[in-house]
Design a protein that fits this description.
Number of helices: 3
Number of domains: 2
Strand content: 25-35%
Oligomer: single chain
Order of helices and strands: EEEEEHEEHHEEE
Distance between the termini: 27 Å
Number of strands: 10
Radius of gyration: 16 Å
CATH architecture of the largest domain: 2-Layer Sandwich
Largest sheet: 7 strands, mixed
Structural class: alpha+beta
Helix content: 25-40%
CATH topology of the largest domain: Yope Regulator, Chain: A
Length: 157
Protein backbone atom coordinates (compact mmCIF):
# COMPACT_ATOMS: atom_id res chain seq x y z
CA UNK A 1 0.00 0.00 0.00
CA UNK A 2 1.41 3.41 -0.82
CA UNK A 3 2.41 5.21 2.34
CA UNK A 4 3.31 8.80 3.15
CA UNK A 5 6.41 9.21 5.32
CA UNK A 6 8.53 12.19 6.39
CA UNK A 7 11.69 12.73 4.33
CA UNK A 8 14.70 15.06 4.25
CA UNK A 9 15.96 14.11 0.78
CA UNK A 10 15.90 17.57 -0.80
CA UNK A 11 16.27 20.05 2.06
CA UNK A 12 15.97 20.37 5.82
CA UNK A 13 14.50 23.86 5.29
CA UNK A 14 11.12 22.64 4.08
CA UNK A 15 8.43 20.19 5.11
CA UNK A 16 8.90 17.15 2.91
CA UNK A 17 7.34 13.71 2.54
CA UNK A 18 7.87 10.69 0.33
CA UNK A 19 5.03 8.63 -1.09
CA UNK A 20 6.38 5.15 -1.34
CA UNK A 21 5.61 1.47 -1.59
CA UNK A 22 8.58 -0.72 -0.69
CA UNK A 23 11.06 -0.89 -2.24
CA UNK A 24 10.30 2.25 -4.26
CA UNK A 25 9.83 5.93 -3.61
CA UNK A 26 7.46 7.23 -6.30
CA UNK A 27 6.65 10.79 -5.25
CA UNK A 28 7.80 13.66 -3.09
CA UNK A 29 5.40 16.10 -1.46
CA UNK A 30 6.97 19.45 -0.61
CA UNK A 31 5.57 22.28 1.51
CA UNK A 32 7.49 25.55 1.26
CA UNK A 33 6.88 29.27 0.76
CA UNK A 34 5.21 28.47 -2.60
CA UNK A 35 2.63 26.10 -1.06
CA UNK A 36 2.37 22.36 -1.71
CA UNK A 37 3.96 20.59 -4.67
CA UNK A 38 3.83 16.94 -5.70
CA UNK A 39 6.62 15.58 -7.88
CA UNK A 40 7.82 12.23 -9.14
CA UNK A 41 10.96 11.01 -7.38
CA UNK A 42 14.03 10.74 -9.63
CA UNK A 43 16.54 9.56 -7.03
CA UNK A 44 16.67 7.06 -4.20
CA UNK A 45 16.36 8.09 -0.57
CA UNK A 46 19.61 8.75 1.28
CA UNK A 47 18.38 6.39 4.00
CA UNK A 48 15.40 4.14 4.57
CA UNK A 49 15.97 1.59 1.83
CA UNK A 50 13.78 3.20 -0.82
CA UNK A 51 15.03 3.48 -4.37
CA UNK A 52 13.67 5.42 -7.30
CA UNK A 53 11.42 3.51 -9.68
CA UNK A 54 13.61 2.34 -12.57
CA UNK A 55 11.28 3.14 -15.48
CA UNK A 56 11.12 6.91 -15.02
CA UNK A 57 9.67 7.50 -18.50
CA UNK A 58 6.66 5.30 -17.76
CA UNK A 59 6.26 6.79 -14.26
CA UNK A 60 6.22 10.36 -15.57
CA UNK A 61 3.76 9.51 -18.37
CA UNK A 62 1.38 7.66 -16.02
CA UNK A 63 1.63 10.39 -13.41
CA UNK A 64 0.88 13.13 -15.94
CA UNK A 65 -2.26 11.29 -17.13
CA UNK A 66 -3.53 10.63 -13.60
CA UNK A 67 -2.90 14.20 -12.45
CA UNK A 68 -4.60 15.66 -15.54
CA UNK A 69 -7.59 13.36 -14.98
CA UNK A 70 -7.73 14.64 -11.39
CA UNK A 71 -7.94 18.24 -12.62
CA UNK A 72 -4.37 19.12 -11.66
CA UNK A 73 -1.77 20.78 -13.88
CA UNK A 74 1.39 18.67 -14.19
CA UNK A 75 4.55 20.14 -15.70
CA UNK A 76 7.51 18.19 -17.07
CA UNK A 77 10.78 19.45 -15.55
CA UNK A 78 14.39 18.37 -15.18
CA UNK A 79 16.40 18.01 -11.98
CA UNK A 80 20.05 19.04 -11.50
CA UNK A 81 21.18 15.74 -13.10
CA UNK A 82 18.97 16.32 -16.18
CA UNK A 83 16.47 13.61 -15.13
CA UNK A 84 12.89 14.32 -16.19
CA UNK A 85 10.18 14.49 -13.57
CA UNK A 86 6.59 15.64 -13.21
CA UNK A 87 5.66 18.43 -10.79
CA UNK A 88 2.28 19.88 -9.99
CA UNK A 89 1.04 22.37 -7.43
CA UNK A 90 -1.47 20.85 -5.05
CA UNK A 91 -4.14 23.22 -3.72
CA UNK A 92 -3.98 23.17 0.07
CA UNK A 93 -7.62 22.07 0.25
CA UNK A 94 -6.63 18.91 -1.70
CA UNK A 95 -3.64 18.02 0.47
CA UNK A 96 -5.40 15.11 2.08
CA UNK A 97 -3.74 11.80 2.96
CA UNK A 98 -6.60 9.76 1.50
CA UNK A 99 -6.62 11.79 -1.73
CA UNK A 100 -2.84 11.54 -2.15
CA UNK A 101 -2.80 7.79 -1.49
CA UNK A 102 -5.63 7.43 -4.01
CA UNK A 103 -3.65 9.35 -6.66
CA UNK A 104 -0.55 7.26 -5.94
CA UNK A 105 -2.57 4.02 -6.08
CA UNK A 106 -4.06 5.06 -9.42
CA UNK A 107 -0.54 5.62 -10.82
CA UNK A 108 0.67 2.29 -9.40
CA UNK A 109 -2.32 0.50 -10.94
CA UNK A 110 -1.40 2.06 -14.30
CA UNK A 111 2.17 0.81 -13.83
CA UNK A 112 0.98 -2.71 -13.04
CA UNK A 113 2.30 -2.62 -9.47
CA UNK A 114 -0.04 -4.53 -7.22
CA UNK A 115 -0.34 -4.22 -3.49
CA UNK A 116 -3.39 -4.25 -1.25
CA UNK A 117 -4.41 -0.62 -1.87
CA UNK A 118 -3.90 -0.93 -5.62
CA UNK A 119 -5.85 -4.19 -5.78
CA UNK A 120 -8.70 -2.57 -3.81
CA UNK A 121 -8.77 0.31 -6.29
CA UNK A 122 -8.87 -2.15 -9.20
CA UNK A 123 -11.86 -3.87 -7.56
CA UNK A 124 -13.67 -0.54 -7.06
CA UNK A 125 -13.11 0.40 -10.71
CA UNK A 126 -14.42 -3.00 -11.82
CA UNK A 127 -17.46 -2.55 -9.58
CA UNK A 128 -18.13 0.86 -11.14
CA UNK A 129 -17.82 -0.59 -14.65
CA UNK A 130 -20.19 -3.43 -13.81
CA UNK A 131 -22.97 -1.23 -12.44
CA UNK A 132 -22.58 1.88 -14.57
CA UNK A 133 -25.45 2.30 -17.02
CA UNK A 134 -24.59 5.79 -18.23
CA UNK A 135 -22.03 6.94 -20.77
CA UNK A 136 -21.50 10.33 -19.07
CA UNK A 137 -19.29 9.34 -16.10
CA UNK A 138 -21.97 9.67 -13.43
CA UNK A 139 -21.53 8.16 -9.98
CA UNK A 140 -23.32 4.85 -9.41
CA UNK A 141 -25.63 4.35 -6.44
CA UNK A 142 -24.70 1.33 -4.32
CA UNK A 143 -26.85 1.36 -1.17
CA UNK A 144 -27.70 3.38 1.95
CA UNK A 145 -26.63 6.70 0.44
CA UNK A 146 -23.27 5.37 -0.78
CA UNK A 147 -22.11 5.98 -4.33
CA UNK A 148 -19.06 4.91 -6.33
CA UNK A 149 -17.42 7.47 -8.62
CA UNK A 150 -15.74 6.91 -11.97
CA UNK A 151 -12.32 6.94 -10.30
CA UNK A 152 -13.27 4.20 -7.81
CA UNK A 153 -13.95 6.30 -4.73
CA UNK A 154 -16.85 5.52 -2.40
CA UNK A 155 -18.70 8.69 -1.41
CA UNK A 156 -21.77 9.44 0.69
CA UNK A 157 -24.41 11.67 -0.87
Amino acid sequence: MPDIEPSRKLSADQEEYRICSKPYVFFRLIFDKHGARLMTATASENCGGYRAFEDQKTLTAATARVLEDAGLHPTLKEDHAQRSYIETPIPLDRVDREELVHLASTVLLTLGITDVQVLALAEMLALYDKFSVSENDEAVYLSDGMWITTDGKIVEK
